[in-house]
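Readers of this paper often ask what the protein records in our data store actually look like. Such a record has a labelled line for the sequence and another for the backbone structure tokens. Nothing more is needed to write down the fold, since each code stands for a local backbone conformation. The record that follows is passed on verbatim for readers who wish to inspect the format.
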Amino acid sequence: MPDGKRKGAQALSMRISGNKAAFYNCKFYGYQDTICDDTGNHFFKDCYIEGTFDFIFGSGRSLYLSTQLNVVGDGLRVITAHAGKSTEEKSGYSFVHCKVTGTGTGIYLGRAWMSHPKVVYAYTDMSSVVNPSGWHENTQTERDKTVFYGEYKCSGPGSRKEKRVKYTQDIDNIEANSFISLGYIQGSSWLLPPPL
């Protein structure tokens, strides 16, 4: 685990910068910057991803299905740092039927690394490790108007919305449909069934 003192101590477990990539039953272990989900359409199913800070980051357009997001370590801990830079950009992360687990309390679902991050959690079980505010406060307050942080029919003690930051999107059925199907990553045109 990086000690926070040495520069460059964090290291990627994996970087995907190609289009039309799928990962099934994979485990990714790291601390800061575990997965660089960089560019293109990607699909993660039945995976396990572990980290501390920004452990899923980049500007990919990815669907994470039935994947466990496990947060470890101490201090500031954030799952996603999506790098969306404009409303026109076709990128974002969608977590569907996932589990957020870990140690301690106060972890954040995401933060605005760039100006227009887009992250949605749907039907996700969130344990008590999730900070009641859900999303990390933007250090640049103008990003309060440009982030898209959505939650839809999540469960568990970490999913309570009473204390969420004001820019959390409570998306409806129609809007949720665009994030929870394979159509989000144009998967019907390239995604094959998982290998046996």
